[in-house]
Amino acid sequence: MSATPDRTACADLDAADPLAGVRDRFVVRDGLVYLDGNSLGALPLQTPSRVAAAVEQEWGQGLVRSWMDAQWMDAPVRVGDKLARMIGASPGEVVVAESTTVCLFKLICAGLAMQRGRTVVLTEEENFHSDLYVAAGAARLCGGTVGVVPRARLLDALDDRVAVVMHTHVDFRTGFMHDMRGLSAAAHEAGALALWDLCHSVGAVPLQVNADGADMAVGCGYKYLNGGPGAPALLHVRSSLHEALRNPIPGWLGHAAPFAFEPSHRPAAGLGSMITGTPHILQLAALESGVDLWLEIDMAVAREKSIALGELFIQLVEDRLDNAGFTLASPRDPERRGSQVSLVHPKAYGIVRGLIERGVVGDFRAPDICRFGLAPLYTRYVDVWDAVERMGNLLSDGDHLDERFAEKVAVT
Ligand SMILES: *Cc1c(COP(=O)(O)O)cnc(C)c1O
Q1: Which residues are near ligand 1 (CB < 6 Å)?
Q2: Cβ atoms within 10 Å, residue 411
Q3: Domains of the chain (ranges plus CATH)?
Q4: Whose CA is nearest to atom 4 of ligand 1?
Q5: Of 59, 65, 217, 348, which has the fewest beta carbons less than 10 angstroms from its beta carbon?
Q6: pLDDT tens profile 32-81
Q7: Whose CA is nearest to atom 1 of ligand 1?
Q8: Model confidence pLDDT, tens digit, residues 123-162
Q9: pTM of whole model > 0.90?
Q10: 38, 101, 103, 106: residue to mutate for ligand 1 pocket, most atoms within 8 A of CB
């Protein structure tokens, strides 16, 4: 790459950024460098009034009539259809429900049930812990077992016992991005279903789940989608599987006639059957607001900026902190990297905590990773510059070694 940019050059990049104005549509405190939108996305400016309207008008005034008058009943499908546009699925192929972990449970059980004679859920040991936990629990309850193998050996483990292969598309620790098309094809060749976790992909990288062969997918509402803490998750299943799909947690709102109060479950048409109980209306209002904002954005432009931010971050660390003991945990090739940069350092924990005190919020991932999310809608080039500058100052002060960082806090 070219000469190390200075702060002025970064400010020039911001001035030329086609997404520069979008930052003003978020609440980002002055002086704060927020590089943790991959853990909890920032608050869109339009969200408080939309949530307030759902509370005050729809709930307060409309009361129970709002199930129809305010289209509460349709919200999981309506927001799902909007998300389908973001991930390259068709209308009717996405609903919004519960959390990512619970949606995974439903899809793993449903996948095992659809794949008669096959009992293994195959995944990689590098996968996110919640995904591993719920896979084990779902398999135990639904008559299967989980095969957990190192990423490098996954393809060797694909045999005719495998019902479902579960991947997280972008690795939460390193940002490594899997080849969705290639791995889905490999799963299909072995007769397995491909289940994709899009938590660090949706709103971070362009997605074409149908074209890339995903059979089922889940994704997080509170990270890059900016749907707020505890936002419900997206659940995707390609339409050709809907007929055979059975919800392992059947409930009245996934029934063909919820208000007929029939004694046994008759699944609603299509993906509606995967809904269980009453939707999280207030959280859905916040999520829909975040998704609506995203639908105004050209994902290709967002991706271009996200890559440029990542390249800048890596270049600044390599040029300015070359003797500081960092190694890059993320792929150097931006095509294989999600919207984050992760650095390994023996004192990673103290660095992350020290940076937070200096107004740079990233996060620590055990055992030794400093993780920086680069949400392209509200992260500026100068934020990246300031983050690296403050990291350099912290390391030269030695403040990251202070004993107040010896004890780990509960959430990092
Ligand atoms: C964030 C994340 C989750 C979160 O699951 P919830 O049940 O919504 O809390 C699951 N899987 C991955 C890969 C994640 O990054």
Answers
A1: 99-101, 128, 130-131, 168, 172, 197, 199-200, 220, 233
A2: 6
A3: 7-30+298-405 (3.90.1150.10), 49-294 (3.40.640.10)
A4: 100
A5: 65
A6: 999 999 999 999 999 999 999 999 999 999 999 999 999 999 999 999 99
A7: 199
A8: 999 999 999 999 999 999 999 999 999 999 999 999 999 9
A9: yes
A10: 101
SS (H, E, C) the chain: CCCCCCHHHHHHHHHCCCCHHHHHHEECCCCCEECCCCCCCCEECCHHHHHHHHHHHHHHHCHHHHHHHCCCCCHHHHHHHHHHHHHCCCCCCEEEECCHHHHHHHHHHHHHHHCCCCCEEEEECCCCHHHHHHHHHHHHHCCCEEEEECHHHCHHHCCCCEEEEEEECECCCCCEECCHHHHHHHHHHCCCEEEEECCCCCCCCCCCCCCCCCCEEEECCCCCCCCCCCCCEEEEECHHHHHHCCCCCCCHHHECCHHHCCCCCCECCHHHHHCCCCCCHHHHHHHHHHHHHHHCCCHHHHHHHHHHHHHHHHHHHHHHCCCCCCEECCCCCHHHECCEEEEECCCHHHHHHHHHHCCEECEEECCCEEEEECCCCCCCHHHHHHHHHHHHHHHHHCHHHCHHHCCCCCCC
Q: Which residues are catalytic?
A: 128, 197, 222-223, 371
Look at ligand 1, atom 13, and give the residue with the nearest C-alpha. Answer: 128
